[in-house]
Amino acid sequence: MKSKNRTIALTLMIVFLMIFTACSSQNNDSSTEQPPTNKSNGQFSNEDAGNEGFDHVNISSEVVAGSKTLEEMGLTFTISDASPTGLTFHFTNTSDHEFIYSEDFWLYVDDNGSWESVTPIIENWTFTEPGYIVSPQSETEKTDVNWEWLFGELESGTYLFTKGILNFRGTGDFDDYNIGAKFEIQ
């Protein structure tokens, strides 16, 4: 019975995540929007996104989740193989917590110390929103992200790749974080 309740709760959570993120993934034509964070106002300030508050030099596994790094929570987010058309990422979970993420992501470019949204090259777009589970004490497969369909080829510069992730503890008991890592395109 406990397993059935957990399955139902997880299914409902994934459906909620899909509905919630599908609504937030719509094109909003806001090219100056700042990277989201877990702060109460839902926005990353330029100070938070600067080198002092968002310590990602080139490709880094450090991420920010509110006032605590996910590494302190036992989750490592690693990106690699960054190119003008995509990158690869994966999670390593050394905690007893379960995390859930989806396919949505966003890109920001460093414009003289200010993070600016990379403008999509198409008008009507959306992400599919399945819920991928990062089980306790596990490592996910490497996931390739190709953004050429949405952003085209990126020019040289410093970029911020962001994703949303849930720290799922049970039905109605979760924290929602936005994580990110910087990378360079030469």
Main beta sheet strand tally, sense and closure: 6 strands, antiparallel
Secondary-structure content class: alpha+beta
Tertiary shape: globular
- Tally of individual helices: 3
Helix percentage: 10-25%
Q: State the end-to-end distance.
A: 55 Å
Topology as a string of helices (H) and strands (E): HHEEEEEEEEEEHEE
Please state the CA-atom Rg, rounded to the nearest Å: 16 Å
Question: For the residues shown, what is the average pLDDT?
Answer: 73
**Spans of at least 5 consecutive residues with low confidence:** 9-13, 15-67
Number of strands: 12
Number of domains: 1
Instruction: Determine the strand fraction and express it as a percent band.
Output: 35-45%
Summarize the structure.
With 186 residues, the chain is an alpha+beta fold. It is built from 3 helices and 12 strands, in the order H-H-E-E-E-E-E-E-E-E-E-E-H-E-E.
Molecular structure report:
With 186 residues, this protein is of the alpha+beta class. It has one domain. It has 3 helices and 12 strands, in the order ααββββββββββαββ. The strands form 3 sheets. Strands 5, 6, 7, 8, 11 and 12 form a 6-stranded antiparallel sheet that branches. Strand 6 and strand 7 form a beta hairpin. It is globular and about 40 Å long. It starts with a helix and ends with a strand.
Features:
186 residues; six-stranded antiparallel β-sheet; four-stranded antiparallel β-sheet; 3 helices; 12 strands; globular
Write the layout of secondary structure elements.
Elements: H1 2-24, H2 46-49, E1 64-65, E2 68-69, E3 75-83, E4 86-93, E5 98-101, E6 106-111, E7 114-117, E8 132-134, E9 138-139, E10 143-146, H3 148-151, E11 157-170, E12 173-185
Antiparallel strand pairs: 1-2, 3-4, 4-9, 4-10, 5-8, 5-11, 6-7, 6-11, 11-12
